[in-house]
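Hey team,

Sharing the Transposase run so nobody has to redo it. Sequence (422 residues) first:
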Amino acid sequence: MSQLSWIFYHGSMNELHAHYRLLLGLDDQWQVQNVDLQMEANSVVIQLRHSGGKLCCPECQDECSRADTASTRQWRHLDTMQFETIIEAAIPRSKCDRCGVKTIAVPWAGKHSRFTLMFEAFAIKVLQAASSVSAATKLLKVSWKTAHELMQRGVERGLQRRDTDPIETLGIDEKSFGKGQDYVSLMVDLEGSRVLEVVKDRSEASCDKLFDSLTDEQKSGIRAVAVDFWQAFRNSIVKQVPQAKIVHDHFHISQYLGEAVDLVRRRENKLLRSEGINDLTGTRQLWLYNEETLDDATQKQIEDIRQVAIKTARAWGIKEMFRDFWTYRSGAWAKKFFDRWYAWAIRSKLDPIKKVARMLKKHLAGLLAYFEYSITNAKSEAFNGRVQAIKSAARGFRNFENYRTRILFYCGALKMEPDFSH
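Structure output:
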């Protein structure tokens, strides 16, 4: 006989009822009517009964009379010694002169929830700590759909509780969603290292929606926004927070220069292969390295290839030289460096490099703003791995709201646990 069975058969039923009444935090209006151990189902059903008397309207909190009783419902509670524990009760409905007939609030669960507050709090901790949602569902003994419902409720609570303290620096970035050219836009509090909001698409209107998540006071306090060159984002920033400086950083610029080098490599590789030379084939990753991080073997490999792939080597050298731009301590000296670098890039006769150089010159003010506000989208980029893991674990998302919920659950730094104070 298990320990739980012994308690049921040999312990005091009154003590058992009092035990569960205390664990559930029941007030004087609720009593434990019965505790039903169902051995075959490996479960415990705790049946509760309302003691009667005046009710409280869940909307206006006024005292009112009883209208009737809703049908019996069940809530999943924390397991008792590996036994799945269910709370069962018929909830009275109040008759309020102001709000009409309403089902009253219960102390052990939130509105419309199928779980007790304690189970929801435990589930949130498990979902955050588990290696994946699938692993968490096995530990919690719930379905994937149920796990998502728990995350959704947690996110809703967290967003309602989110503070409206001042935010000085933001990062705005895009992430792929689904297949093709589907994107979502993210707003990140750079100092707080948290995703503030996620919206569908990457248009000016979608960026406006990101700013709608902030109060007017918060928007007026924004000093700088780290963003790439996407014009739709820039238009929204100028409109929504005109006082803020637009800052471009090396994360996106390195990406543009890396793509330009690879385009030069592919064009030159096509030409060399027509002449029977395959030295550039399969070297895409090689030209993404930074010079100071190369080991001796890789350094020698690049030196050997540079004797043949002259254009690719020149493009790589231009990319590497631009990295010195970020080492300056003042915008004035950085501007002088940029002018020299730009002249070299334009004279390179490499169209992909020239295209990026012209783009950087067009947005030079945003590059130089970095020396006034040393913010980067590094924290936004740091979320890339987590967001990609979220997307992969779910095999992609057909529903944007599910994707948004998952990102905010894991990256929003929200206070999602239920409130036990009521």
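The CA atoms of residues 269 and 280 lie 6 Å apart.

Ping me if you want the raw files.
A.
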